[in-house]
Description:
Shape of chain A: globular
Order of helices and strands of chain A: HEHHEEH
Distance between the termini of chain A: 26 Å
Largest sheet of chain A: 3 strands, antiparallel
Radius of gyration of chain A: 18 Å
Strand order of the largest sheet of chain B: 1-2
Number of helices of chain A: 4
Order of helices and strands of chain B: HHHHHHHEEHHHHH
Radius of gyration of chain B: 31 Å
Number of strands of chain B: 2
Oligomer: heterodimer
Helix content of chain B: 55-70%
Amino acid sequence: MNSIGKLLDSLTIELKRGVLVLVVLSQLHKPEYGYSLVQKLEEKKMPIEASTLYPLLRRLEKQKLLISKWDTGESRPRKFYQLSAEGEEVYKLLKNEWKSLGKQIENLLEEDECNDESY
Amino acid sequence: MMNLIDRYIFAVTEHLPEDMREDVGRELRTNIEDMLPQNPEKGDVYRVLEELGNPWKLASEYNPKKRYLIGPGLYDNYLSVLKLVTGVVTAVLVAITLISWIFNLSVDTYLFENIIESFVEVLVIAIQGAIQAALWVTLVFAVLERTGVGEGVIPFSKKNWSPDDLPVLPINDKRKISRGETVFSMFGTVLFTALLYFRPQLLALYIKDEFANINITPLFDTERLQSYIPIIILFAVIQLGIFIWKYIARRWNISLAVANLIYNLSLCILLLIMINDNSLFNGQFFIEISNYTKMAFSEIMAIWERVIVVFTVVFIAINIWDGISKFSYCKE
């Protein structure tokens, strides 16, 4: 049972890794800094580890999906990230991909459940 | 406490390219400070750094650059070439050392300590040779990796894979190049070149005189042979290149067959030039034969000339046949 649990854990992590970018893009219509995004995702029950998120933000910036700005106005200077125009576009397209993929998978699983009942 | 954070940030940024070091460090510091409660204690810092995990791993997430010497595209070829070259170089060096040692034997080298000394010498030469060979192979492959040779889907080519690239099934496939044979030929080339380079005087006539001393008369005029050494080494290097190519390709193809034919023809030309160079041969060699066989010098020379003609004709015939026949292996 233990080995099945372990396998399930790693498979779930892999599933989540695929939607990581979509999750992050969805939260960045307004500027956020690293830790505020960690907290926001935790509140929404979609936690991402800080050590994964911080480098990911930089990579998305390099791919020109995000723009960043240092805000030195407050007591502690922070780097804020926000979707670029290109990022908004990509987010919209990726969201549609996700929706249609979700539907297709839903259909597959439903079909499978019907088959199960007929046995 | 701050010291711990500084050390963590240093550990992450030290592996990063210089232009992103400062910005990543600054951002990481505010992120860590954000994760800490107000008036943090040492335990809090400890917990946050533990959550961020191994700095080396974090750095690799930040760093877009290649962090390996030889990537998976070239790795298999690297390993097989490494084994081949190190093996051949080591074996040849040991063989040459042993041969020269045996030919230099005199009475006093039978002493036990001399044998031990020679054995250690062989061992040292073998290890040095292996290290040198491994170093150069690794260097060449690291350069190949950096120049992007391995980035194609097929190693050593930028093309995308197509079903045409599939290997032929091994049943009765004439195109297939036997690896054992290639290694054996490679060994022969290196040994022969090394013999000409280091110990040409070993190609000689060995005659025992009435006092049981062995008189050695070399076939070649050593000084004259020296002027051929650069071109002989050039030939050996090209030959080794073709062998390595054969070893990797494993099958005959048109470009390999062309290279093979050109090499064979050039080798024949070199042979013709050397054969016709009378000063290359040591006159004393033929006088010794004449003395030993009690035949007239002119008779010996006549036989020698016939031997040379037959040898040359056979050599050229074999090389041309070898060069041309490989083209028929390229057909389906």
